Structure formats: structure tokens, C-alpha cells
Amino acid sequence: MSRTVRAAAVQIAPDLTSRAGTVERVLNAIAESAEKGAELIVFPETFVPWYPYFSFVLPPVQQGPEHLRLYEEAVIVPSAETRAVAEAARKRNVVIVLGVNERDRGSLYNTQLIFDADGSLKLKRRKITPTYHERMIWGQGDGAGLKVVDTAVGRVGALACWEHYNPLARYALMAQHEEIHASHFPGSLVGPIFGEQIEVTMRHHALESGCFVVNATGWLSEEQIHSIHPDPALQKGLRDGCMTCIITPEGRHVVPPLTSGEGILIGDLDMRLITKRKRMMDSVGHYARPELLHLVQDVRPARALEQIGSARPPHEDLDTTSFQEVQDA
After folding, report:
1. Contact (Cβ atoms closer than 8 angstroms) between residue 139 and residue 109
2. Cβ contacts of 170 within 8 Å, gap of 6 or more
3. Among 11, 137, 263, 284, which is least packed by CB within 10 angstroms?
């Protein structure tokens, strides 16, 4: 594959006051990235309207108002917001991976959307297991979303945050021969150790899968941190933790990572490196031992209600004997 894909990993702050404000930032970043030649653009985890940072520092009894506000600002798929991003993808001829808080009636989900360069929505997947504090906020996804899709830039797979610590979830995508892995984390969380762990995880996945990794983390300004919680001790949990990076199949950074501030990381992916890596170690091919170890994946969408068969038309349930026939008898 003697081709090159220019990728952009976006590290920016959301608008913590409105979904519309964050969507505007998304559209501006798409335009800026496309002007720099990007063909693939990856945004942070649940960036629209914002990651629920409050859930990391507030006790459950105090989360109600912010949780309800997140419900009000969350994204319905499809909606005007998703159509705006799809149109930007089509207009700019770029593939976009966007993290959103998806509202499905009474539940919220950590959802990843992959838009192809023609504006079509190629994948909507939900994080299979929310992490730690996130379990108070989101529902669980299912195996139907563990899917690699063909796009204008190649075969793209996606996972969110600590899903990368589930080796079987990663292997499900590896076995589908992903060429580019799009990932994202919230950023501005936990502290410096979080960024260090992200780097290790992203480099390891690139090496193990023999694919490129494009990872985007979010960012919070000092003003935003103070707005989330006034306690300086708890504010420490809302700083650092950023590691926006682009990694080769050999585990190397394409360009230096972005660990603080806002910015757009641009890197060129030499797709020949995939074969160069897999020639040495293809973990789902010549280096695999499927007769000893293999993964079984349930790809059925999870449903609260499954209706089997079809209901009979109402008239079939009625006694067709007329009232006059009964009287005559």
C-alpha cells in the first residue's frame, strides 16, 4: 500500500455551557484541519456536548442537577448536530471520528460516530463498559459496535478510553484487520500519570495490531476547572492527563505528542508501514494460533424487547358468528 493518509488529532476544550457551542468548535476544527490537508480527523471522548467531568469530583448525591443538564444537552442520533458534522465531512471530503454523549430516551451512552468522506455515518458504537465513576452516567454498549468499517482512508476501528484495557475488545478489531485505530480519552483528568498510561496503551496497541493509532484527548481551561468544582484539592483531579498522539505500527510517534493546551496534531501515515510491521508479527495471521486460542464475539445488538412473530389482525380474534345467527339458533 504505497499511499499516505494525513491525519489530525484534535485537542480542544468543549463549551461547558451548551451543545451548540461545542458543535461550533467541532465544525471550526474540521475546517482548520481540512485546510491543513487532513483526510482523517479524530476528536476527544464524548466531546459533544462535554465529557461529564463533574462525575469524577462530585459525590452521587450532588450529581443530579449536572446529570440532568447533560441529558438536556446530549446528542440524539440522528439530529441536526450529526447532520451538520456529516455535511462538514462531505464538504471537506474528510473522515471524522467524533465522541458524543448520546441520548436514547431515558439513557445516556458514551458513543463514537464515524463519518465517511461522503458524509455517510459508517458506524455508531457505544462504549461497552463505562469506567468507574462513569457507570453513574452511561449505560453499556454491546458487541454489535465492535466493528471495523471501510472508509475513504482505509479500514478504521475505534475504542474509547479504558476499553483499551479490555484485550478481547481490542482483539475483536485486530481480527477485522483495522488499518487505522481511532481512539480518544477525556483529557484534563486524574493527573500526569493518566497521560503516561495513555501513551503506553496507544503504543502497545499499535505494535500489537500492526496499525496506526490516532488518539485525541480533551482539554479544560483553568476557568472551566474552577467552574466544575471550587475546591482546590479536587481541582487537581481535573488537570493534566492529556496525550494527544499519532502512533505508527512500529510504536513510534509520527510527530511529538500534545500534552497540554489546545491544538491540532497533524501527521502523515505511511501505510506501507503496516505490511512492514506485519511481515514480522501478524497477531491475527501468521503469528496467531487459532486452533489453540480464538475469540468468540456476540455481534447481536442488545435489545430490551424482542418481539417474535407477528400479531394477528384484530378481526381474526373476533367471533364471526353474527348476532342474528345466534338469535335464530
Report:
1. yes
2. 159, 163, 164, 205, 208, 209
3. 263
For the chain, list residues with pLDDT below 50. 320-323, 326, 329
Task: Yes or no: say if 299 and 144 are a contact pair by the CB < 8 Å rule.
Answer: yes
Distances (CA, A) of 87 to 28, 72, 120: 13, 24, 9
Predicted TM-score of the model (pTM) = 0.93
Q: Which residue pairs from 76-84 have beta carbons closer than 8 angstroms and sit at least 24 positions apart in sequence?
A: 76/102, 76/103, 76/104, 77/102, 77/111, 77/113, 77/121, 77/124, 78/121, 81/19, 81/23, 81/48, 82/113, 82/121, 84/23, 84/27
Alpha carbon distance 104, 301 (integer Å)? 14
Q: Cite the active site residues.
A: 45, 127, 161
Q: Which amino acid is at 193?
A: I
In three-state secondary structure terms, 155 is strand
The 10 Å Cβ neighbour count of residue 150 is 11
pLDDT of residue 317: 54
pLDDT tens-place string over residues 240-261? 999 999 999 999 999 999 999 9
Asked if 46 and 16 touch (Cβ cutoff 8 Å), the reply is: no
At 21-55, the pLDDT tens digits run 999 999 999 999 999 999 999 999 999 999 999 99
**Ranges of H-type helices in 143-297:** 167-174, 192-209, 222-228, 232-235, 272-280
The answer to whether residues 4 and 270 touch, using CB atoms and an 8 Å cutoff, is: yes
Q: State the DSSP H helix or E strand holding residue 64, giving kind and residue range, or none if neither.
A: helix 64-73
Numbers of helices and strands, H then E, in the chain: 10, 11
* Homologous superfamily assigned to 4-280: Carbon-nitrogen hydrolase (3.60.110.10)
Backbone angles phi, psi at 215, to 5 degrees: -120, 135
The structural domains of the chain, with segments of one domain joined by +, span 4-280
Tell me the residue length of the chain: 329
- Among 171, 226, 166, 217, which residue's Cα sits nearest to residue 194? 217
